[in-house]
Amino acid sequence: MKYEFKTNVKKTEYDEFVKKASTLSFMQEYNWAFVKEEWNHFHCGLYKDKKLVATALVLKRKLPLGISLMYIPRGILVDYKNKEILEIFTKKLRELAKQEHAYVVKIDPNFCYREYSIKEIEKQEKVDIPLYYSNDYELKHKNILSCGYHFKGYTKSIQDTLQPRYHMYIPLINKDHNFLTESEIKTSFKKRIRSYIGNYHEKRGVTYFHTSDPKYLDMFMEVITQTEKRQNIRLRNKSYFKKMMEQYKGEAYLFFGMLNLETYLQFLKNNNGKEEEIKEVENLQTDGQKEIVLSAAFVIIPQNEGLRTSEYLYAGNHLLFTKLNVSVGLVYEICKYSLEQGCSYCNLGGINGTFDDHLTPFKSRFNAIVFEFAGEYDLIVQPIRYHIYEFCMPILKKIYRFLRRKK
Questions:
Q1: SS3 246
Q2: Helix 137-146 × helix 83-99 angle, to 10°
Q3: Within its chain, how far is the Cα of 281 from the centroid?
Q4: Where are the domains of the chain?
Q5: Kindly report the CA angle at 317 between 405 and 340, in degrees rounded to 5?
Q6: Least crowded by CB within 10 Å, which of 7, 118, 334, 398?
Q7: Per-residue pLDDT of the chain (407 residues; tens, 9 = 90+)
Q8: pTM for this predicted structure
Q9: In the chain, how long is the greatest CA-to-CA distance?
């Protein structure tokens, strides 16, 4: 058997390999490199007898003192149970890191340590769930360690790693991996939010739609900007989302929850609505508005042939009419479309492993499954510099977050 390692795999070949992946993160795709423009990159591949058997998008960032950090988002796309291929790929990564003066190569593989329902945390209630991402964890973990990686541990804070270890996924399949119906997805949500889905919103003039047309980005950004102000955070600017839509054409979607003001006004008048609410709607109409966006989300659906997961990446909500809970209906619409696209899960994104952050209460409404990912593994190339940077990095991250908030 003859192995060959390349750092410039052609896009067509890379995409074809990625397409056949059993599981896939959008960050493992070829075009993620062109979104992360502030990093240099290598599209690496390992060939066995001229057949591509593993790929990795290796991102490289220059640091002070003439050294670099290398990072492979969501880890190498490889069968982690195949120790031989993993060992050879790791050896080649180490050689590349030395050439590029990188002190470490960080990976965070796309498999889980554990999967469990949020109900097990909230009510200590055992729930049968589909299991997939945590299958063969011990073997995969053992093989990575045997290749010389340093395991960063079972961290809990969302700030401890480059990608959150804890995510919440809405299952669109049952424990036997059969697809759910739309009705079954709805009834899987907590009882207190189900009433907002369907007839409740229709009566009040709430409608939903999705698009892959970038011309709707201005409408999306209006809601994102309001969310940033309300939560005192910074998300992404319009150019970033435009870039995402360009690089993930056919996979990136904008979802919107709209309120028709005339329909809502009539509903309020016919159902003893509060005077201040009626006045609020009338003022908006006086300003020439017919409908407003109450909720919006940016979603990516990778088109791999294996188990497919939609990614609910960014979302925002209007400051007005929050009691309508349009964001709940929007998540349901995303789930429905994800189901149509053959997705087994909808990933609502990262949370703290302590479950006490501001994200968890909303995401737990959908009785989601907690995906506790394996976490970070470091291939240490320059031990002394590694330990210096590991000590300094948390401090530098805090400074960076502070400065970003001040912009």
A1: helix
A2: 40
A3: 35
A4: 3-110+376-406, 180-341
A5: 120
A6: 398
A7: 799 999 999 999 999 999 999 999 999 999 999 999 999 999 999 999 999 999 999 999 998 878 899 999 999 999 999 999 999 999 999 999 999 999 999 999 999 999 999 999 998 888 999 999 999 999 999 999 999 999 999 999 998 999 999 999 999 999 999 999 999 999 999 999 999 999 999 999 999 999 999 999 999 999 998 877 776 767 789 999 999 999 999 999 999 999 999 999 999 999 999 999 999 999 999 989 999 999 999 999 999 999 999 999 999 999 999 999 999 999 999 999 999 999 999 999 999 999 999 889 999 999 999 999 999 999 999 999 998 888 776 666 666 555 555 55
A8: 0.93
A9: 78
Same fold, 3-110+376-406 and 180-341: yes
Tokens of 277: 């609410």
Q: Check the CA dihedral 347-352-353-354 and report its sign.
A: negative
* DSSP assigned state of 185: H
Secondary structure of residue 74 in the 3-state scheme:
coil
Place of tokens 């049952």: 174
Question: At which residue do the structure tokens 């006004």 appear?
Answer: 265
Instruction: Write down the CATH superfamily of domain 180-341.
Output: Gcn5-related N-acetyltransferase (GNAT) (3.40.630.30)
3-state secondary structure 91-133: HHHHHHHHHCCEEEEEECCCCEEEEEECHHHHCCCCCCCCCCC
Instruction: Show the tokens assigned to 232.
Output: 């005192």
Buried b (16+ CB within 10 A) or exposed e, 309-345: bbbbbbbbbbeebeebbbbbbbbbbbbbbbbeeebbb
DSSP string covering 255-295: EEEEEEHHHHHHHHHHTT--HHHHHHHHHHHHTT-SEEEEE
Assign domain 3-110+376-406 to its CATH architecture.
3-Layer(aba) Sandwich (3.40)
